[in-house]
């Protein structure tokens, strides 16, 4: 039996080195015990005791495995090291295994990694700093309770965002401190070690009040959006009763006030919104999907295009319209002389809904409940981007924009005022074109689709 001690619960490098050496020595997964802790002496004694590893045939590990392992290692799941090692050993004989998303081991590790990814995004979206003063001047302290071992891996994100501030993030397991140049680590803390409310909260209250959309007010949905566990740390939750009370009054002025958030920076607000969406659990679709596929494009785009939901390839890539429907879309945009890099492209529903059939994931249409649950996000995207023209591709996109069922045949070919400003142009979805069996009809319908995109673009006011 080989006992491998990993010094820290999130130590991918230690796991990789040990796993490499064990795999090269032909050690079977059931012969390895993995443990975490500050073991005295030689941490890799058990591996070394096995003698120098016989030079086993080296084999290339797919990038997808490394990505998966780097996330799964951070899970609180005690079996993660062993599961990953089993997968590594199997990959040697089954090089395509990572593509087999129906394989129980791949699926289990995928689920673990996904949970970790969501936790990483939750920390980024929900950490709130409070200001304290010490001898060195202002310092910002936050308390957070992660589900997994994600604090170290998230440090770079907070350094990038708050590079010039001195800050600490306290968590039960570990604390990280940034003094403007160096990151240090300390022991875990308790909530009592973190300060309560102060003026820093105003920044977040302003942000939250600005992106708060009274037209979509639903307390149940809000509670789901911000998991209850985080509410107690979030200053903006103190605003909720006032926002609810003022909702009707605010509604008419909503679009105007939603403009410049986070110090007048809509791009930062959109980035924060995207981060929040990564942890979205507003409907059950987040469970089987790989990740939230948020919109992408410039925050000042004059045109927004809305699709239905990400497909299989979008779900894996984390970007909208990169699969077969995306290719049709790209070609049609080019023919309509619309530059995709200047368009904000998003979907009505941000998670891939599918049915697993054997190894295949078959697209399944989102229901009204899912479309309506996801309207929260597209409403916020529209508030921040403020497109002049929004192209709705297909019935799901139209439902999401108007909040009611729209018949494409009846509404197509004209600009329709949108609630909250701007106009919509309704057209078909590129997947519909892909499904048409008759080549002549396909060509005709495709030409009409291009015409729709061209007509929508022609409505934009000239720049400058
Ligand atoms: N279909 C959509 O509606 N959106 C995508 O992102 C991909 C396919």
Descriptive account of the structure:
This protein is an alpha/beta fold and 464 residues long. The chain folds into four domains: 2-122, no CATH class; 127-193, no CATH class; 200-255, no CATH class; 262-458, Uracil-DNA Glycosylase, subunit E (3-Layer(aba) Sandwich), CATH 3.40.470.10. The chain has 20 helices and 14 strands. The protein has helices at residues 12-24, 45-49, 63-72, 80-93, 104-126, 151-161, 200-211, 219-225, 228-231, 240-245, 247-251, 254-257, 266-278, 312-317, 324-335, 368-385, 395-402, 408-411, 430-435, 439-458, and strands at residues 2-6, 32-36, 130-134, 137-143, 167-170, 174-178, 183-187, 303-307, 343-347, 354-357, 360-363, 389-393, 415-417, 423-427. The strands form four sheets. The chain has a five-stranded mixed sheet, covered by helices on one side. It has a five-stranded mixed sheet with strand order 9-8-12-14-13, sandwiched between helices. Strands 1-2 form a two-stranded parallel ribbon. Helix 5 (104-126) packs antiparallel against helix 13 (266-278). The relative contact order is 0.07. Residues 307-311, 314, 320-321, 323, 325-326, 347, 431 line the site of uracil (URA). Residues 307-311, 314, 320-321, 323, 325-326, 347, 431 line the site of uracil.
């Amino acid at each position: 039996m080989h006992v491998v001690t990993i010094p820290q619960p999130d130590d991918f490098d230690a796991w990789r080195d040990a796993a490499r050496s064990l795999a090269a020595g032909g050690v079977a997964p059931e012969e390895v015990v993995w443990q975490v802790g500050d073991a005295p002496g030689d941490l890799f004694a058990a591996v070394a005791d096995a003698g120098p590893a016989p030079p086993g045939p080296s084999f290339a590990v797919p990038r997808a495995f490394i990505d998966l392992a780097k996330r799964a290692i951070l899970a609180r799941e005690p079996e993660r090291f062993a599961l990953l090692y089993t997968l590594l050993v199997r990959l040697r004989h089954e090089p395509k295994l990572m593509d087999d998303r129906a394989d129980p081991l791949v699926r289990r590790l995928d689920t673990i990694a996904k949970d970790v990814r969501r936790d990483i995004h939750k920390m980024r979206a929900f950490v709130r700093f409070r200001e304290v003063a010490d001898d060195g001047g202002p310092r910002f302290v936050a308390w957070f309770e992660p589900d997994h071992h994600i604090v170290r891996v998230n440090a770079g994100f907070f350094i990038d965002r708050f590079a010039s501030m001195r800050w600490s993030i306290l968590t039960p397991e570990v604390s990280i401190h940034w003094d403007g140049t160096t990151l240090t680590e300390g022991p875990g803390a308790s909530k009592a070690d973190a300060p309560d409310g102060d003026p820093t909260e105003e920044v977040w209250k302003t942000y939250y009040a600005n992106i708060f959309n009274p037209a979509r007010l639903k307390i149940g949905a809000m509670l789901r959006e911000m998991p209850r566990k985080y509410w107690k740390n979030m200053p903006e939750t103190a605003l909720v009763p006032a926002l609810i009370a003022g909702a009707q009054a605010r509604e008419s002025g909503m679009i105007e006030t939603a403009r410049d958030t986070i110090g007048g920076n809509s791009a930062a607000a959109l980035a924060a919104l995207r981060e929040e969406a990564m942890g979205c659990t507003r409907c059950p679709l987040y469970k089987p999907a790989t990740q939230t596929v948020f919109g992408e494009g410039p925050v000042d785009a004059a045109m927004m295009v809305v699709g239905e939901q990400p497909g299989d390839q979008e779900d894996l890539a984390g970007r909208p319209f990169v699969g077969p429907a995306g290719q049709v879309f790209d070609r049609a945009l080019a023919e309509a002389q619309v530059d995709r890099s200047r368009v904000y492209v998003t979907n009505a529903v941000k998670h891939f809904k599918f049915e697993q059939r054997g190894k295949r994931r078959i697209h399944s249409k989102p229901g009204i409940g899912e479309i309506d649950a996801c309207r929260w996000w597209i409403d916020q995207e529209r508030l921040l981007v403020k497109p002049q023209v929004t192209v709705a591709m297909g019935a799901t996109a139209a439902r999401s924009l108007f909040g009611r069922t729209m018949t494409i045949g009846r509404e197509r070919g004209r600009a329709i005022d949108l609630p909250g400003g701007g106009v919509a142009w309704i057209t078909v979805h590129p997947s519909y074109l892909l499904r048409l069996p008759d080549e002549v009809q396909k060509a005709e319908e495709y030409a009409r689709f291009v015409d729709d995109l061209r007509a929508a673009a022609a409505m934009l006011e000239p720049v400058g």
